[in-house]
Specification:
The structure is a homotetramer of 220-residue chains. Helix content of chain A is 71%, strand content 0%. Chain A has 220 residues and is mainly alpha-helical. Chain A has two domains: 64 residues, Arc Repressor Mutant, subunit A (Orthogonal Bundle), CATH 1.10.10.60; 143 residues, Tetracycline Repressor, domain 2. Chains A and B meet through helix 7, helix 9 and helix 10 of A and helix 7, helix 9 and helix 10 of B. Chain B binds a DNA duplex (21 and 21 nucleotides) through helix 4.
DNA sequence: AATGAATGAGCGTTCATTCAT
DNA sequence: GATGAATGAACGCTCATTCAT
């Protein structure tokens, strides 16, 4: 799959399946993510990325159309790869609660493991970015679809309320997870991010409200 | 207050209370926010901002130290102004549930009313931004302090559970609100954002879980 | 004389003889020399000069055509004034040796007393400066004329050799004096410059050669 | 040696020994000196230099850190090269008089041959120039050391008087030479500069005084 | 006369991209 | 394929000069 998408960038349409070239492609992408994370997309220069990857500036243009394209490929491959792992992880467990827990734990683990990816992801998904717009939309959809499925299953299993506005629930969940990651990224202490999964799920399911309390005021 | 902070940008500190000069400062800031929202900070050029504000390029430097400084002032004044309105609104109502509802509704209203501000705010708070770091931290704290107070009051009033990890609850709430705003910003349809306040509060308090359900599995 | 030359700069040809305006003109010129000395002509800004003079930027243009013109007036008035003092001083003494000594001592004294003027003078006379070219030429001529007279008188008096190439002698003298001033300007210690007058005159008259020595080799 | 100093300007330190790159560095430096001579350092623009050198504006920054750096390299290489030639020339002859004559003739020849260098040198050594200060000081010292040696040797050989204040003698000599060059630079006629060497040495050694004259008045 | 806010031309510098080797 | 020197468009910023008040 990489090979396929790689091919279209070579000026001369040569099939490049050799491990060596693939390596260089990956090295550049890896380097780019690191530099983007450190400097931000605009501050990052092709020269920095090339130096980090151990290649010449010009070499980058053999594997990527231009600077924007590096970002596009990052979403196309790295984050998409991460998100498909969520799918796999969720499919491995049965009930809705476990699925939700696994989704969030995998999400946190994946982002904790790839801090640079996390930084870039957070920055790029929160600004108007013409070139990656579709990629981000696609990925967002992947994630939201999983959440939808879980919620629907949860409702069938009786775990979750029926009177939910699904669209809002999705944002409610992803937003909280994002913010937990964002806080972790901007914090100076390096606490364990994935341990937040269970407490978060608890909050999602039970809210902060006291169930003993008469909730009548809500409907009043 | 604006007049005060304006003064420091004049080469020689002259008291400028005339509406005219103040106007120009505000016009430039307004224009900058608009251009930042459309193009992103780095893509935006001083020329674009000047054109949008109807002034010469050089004029901007009579009111702002440099491009970064425009962003700093944006946070220092516009977003801080918005956030202090949250405080006022929250203080006007009595119980914790009302306070939470009012906080979130005001937040959504304010951002809905100032779409450009919202876009810039979202973008800048999610990237490593050396020059505004302190501003963002300050503002984040203002918001989180309000949430903390509400949660603590809610616990005393018996509205909220006692077994809450406050730090996480704050992120849980602000994250969801942020995501709701973010989705609104990136959506093409212009639905009413502030109407999301009550449903969100409901989710915060009750979660998505079904209270009928035996929650024993949670502790298992 | 100042009043006369001042007048031509006023846009509306009003006779300005009031001490007040004259003051302002002088204050600006004084300020400019100070700033030019500290920063160099190009690094100096009109704003700096205005601040130093305690006037508004625009006011400078009521008294000077433009930035270059300040330099022109500096030469026209300040250095010319200094050089005319040399003339007066020289005329006060009788024989060539005394005249030479007095010329050089006055020169050193004048420049020691007006360090800023000295700095600006040194810088501007050693670069191609289109706008002041004529001024510099005129002043150089004034100085060289005095030297010429002294040398000619010295030859008549038998103090000086007859076989001198006058053009070279002038450069020989002015060059050495200039260099002594230049070294003083660039040195960090603030030694007494005018005390160099007599030793210099001694060098000019006797050279560094040993008169005991058979000078035959020179003609060989 | 040039190659060595050249290297440090390349982003990644690559050994550039090819004549081509060296050429470009030299071409830019040459062009810069020409433009500096014509316009002065501040009036000169990078674009003019680039055009004169036949390269793009950006290319200059592959070889020089910034505009100031061009000036620094000019002193570091061109004038230092010239001054080291003085040393070589002086060392080739034996007695003090010959050494002095050779020093001054070489000096005049070198500056006559490199008029642009001479113009830039005169301008920059007579203004406060932060970036080149050390270079100028170093070079000045080189020159003054040679003069010192010659004078000391001259004293031992009996050519020169013993009662000399060496510090002043150095300024006396270098000042006169400088002024001769300066006059040549500003004159419109292109007379032979180096022919001034012998007459100057004669003035240095014998002064303008008439040795027949009773010098008693000097001490009186 | 005096002011100083406003102007906008102009410059140094950066950096994504190209292309000859 | 790989290189990296070369390019030149583009941008942030400065500052001499103007002019309405």
């Amino acid at each position: 799959m990489n090979t396929h998408s790689l091919r279209i960038f070579h000026r001369r349409p040569t099939i490049v399946t050799k491990a060596k070239s693939n390596d260089k492609y990956e090295r550049i992408l890896e380097a780019a993510i690191k530099v983007f994370a450190e400097q931000g997309f605009h501050q990052a220069t092709i020269s920095q990325i090339a130096r980090e990857a151990g290649v010449a500036d010009g070499t980058i243009y053999l594997y990527f159309k231009n600077k924007d394209d590096i970002m596009v490929r990052f979403f196309d491959q790295r984050t998409k790869r991460a998100f498909s792992r969520f799918r796999v992880a969720v499919d491995r467990v049965g009930n809705a609660r476990d699925k939700l827990t696994v989704l969030i734990r995998t999400h946190l683990e994946e982002f904790q493991l790839n801090r640079d990816m996390a930084v870039v992801y957070q920055a790029e998904t929160h600004r108007n970015n013409r070139s990656c717009e579709q990629q981000i939309r696609d990925m967002s959809k992947m994630y939201l679809d999983i959440v939808s499925e879980i919620v629907e299953q949860g409702q069938q299993e009786g775990l979750m309320r029926k009177d939910l506005y699904l669209g809002l629930v999705k944002r409610f969940i992803i937003g909280a997870v994002d913010e937990v990651i964002n806080t972790w990224l901007h914090s100076n202490t390096d606490y364990d991010l994935s341990s937040m999964a269970e407490p978060l799920v608890d909050l999602f399911l039970r809210g902060v409200g006291n169930p003993e309390e008469d909730e009548g005021d809500k409907d009043a």
